[in-house]
Specification:
With 296 residues, the protein is mainly beta. 11% of the residues lie in helices and 34% in strands. The chain has helices at residues 2-22, 89-96, 111-114; strands spanning 45-54, 66-75, 82-88, 100-102, 138-140, 155-159, 167-170, 173-179, 182-185, 191-194, 197-210, 215-227, 230-239, 273-276, 281-284. The longest helix has 21 residues, at 2-22.
Length: 296
């Protein structure tokens, strides 16, 4: 009898230990983001920007409503300390030539057709000069002579290893370039002078959401933009991935084989995405910053 009680007691201890191990608190997942690396292989995040201030020198083009942002986290080999990297798309566009342009190539212009001269170099010109491509300007890349390897395009700062209350934090991050002045010869034997320009993007109060609903796929920040004399500030909400669109169908996360759509947008279905035709990108119809993802 004593042996039976002892055996039963031992069995209950083993069972209790097994059950306890099953229900032990699971470790908190580390702070992570979706690694986008660049703007060609994997889609960046899309930041929606709400202006909070802008100096009088800011042009309409400089007043931003959205921007793609490359995002990545990493830890150096053998180190537990993580870093967060943000790569602002407008700054990348300046370096790559998508912001500044000049008419440097006569082959795609239509001046000859408009001036009545034969054999216009632009094959798409209409016989009555109806084609609007009278002048087509080419991209002009900008260079920071002190940063030719473009390291300063990346805003880098330490990243908290674990979330607190579902939020991962980073100190201010800065991406910047000091573009040198450049003189560009144009097709009319003239020149376009682009003056030197200091550009700086600073992200502060960065909060990456790390929850079951938003596992590193959205973040918020305050953004300060400096482009020469233009200084502007924004409230920023970013999410992954940035998907270009012309209609809501482009934003549908689901496959529809009957409609010939073999892949979805890649956006989290819980974000309830729709096409914002004003900016040409899919945007969430929910508030990705709040628990439960309530409708906006």
């Amino acid at each position: 009898m004593t042996r039976f009680v002892r055996l039963a007691f031992s069995t209950s201890l083993l069972l209790g230990a097994a059950l306890s191990s099953c229900f032990d608190a699971q470790p908190v997942p580390p702070c992570r983001v979706v690694a986008t690396q660049d703007f060609t292989r994997s889609p960046p995040y899309l930041a929606l920007l709400t202006s909070t201030s802008a100096s009088a020198a800011c042009t309409a083009e400089q007043k931003l409503t959205s921007m793609r942002i490359g995002v990545q986290d990493f830890a150096a080999p053998g180190s537990d300390e993580a870093s967060l990297v943000l790569r602002p798309g407008r700054l990348v566009d300046m370096v790559r030539g998508s912001v500044f342009t000049a008419d440097t190539d006569p082959r795609n212009n239509c001046q000859a057709a408009f001036e009545g001269r034969p054999n216009p170099r632009c094959e798409t010109c209409g016989p009555a000069g109806t084609n609007p491509c009278r002048v087509v300007e080419e991209p002009v890349a900008r260079v920071d002579p002190n940063d030719r390897d473009e390291k300063k395009l990346n805003a880098l700062a330490p990243f908290t290893p674990e979330p607190k209350a579902g939020v991962c934090l980073a100190p201010p991050l800065v991406a910047e370039q000091d573009f040198e002045a450049v003189s560009i010869a144009t097709v009319d034997a003239g020149t376009v002078m682009l003056p030197s320009l200091r550009v700086r993007y600073e992200f502060t109060d960065v909060k990456v959401f790390m929850t079951a609903e938003v596992p590193g796929t959205a973040f918020t920040a305050k953004l300060s933009q400096t482009e020469g004399d233009c200084v502007a500030t924004y409230e920023l909400v970013a999410f992954h991935p940035a998907v270009a669109c012309t209609s809501d169908i482009d934003c549908d996360p689901n496959v529809d084989l009957d409609a010939g759509r073999t892949r979805g947008s890649g956006i989290d279905p819980d974000f309830d995405p729709a096409c914002d035709t004003g900016i040409g990108f899919c945007v969430p119809r929910v508030d990705v910053t709040k628990p439960g993802l309530p409708k906006k």
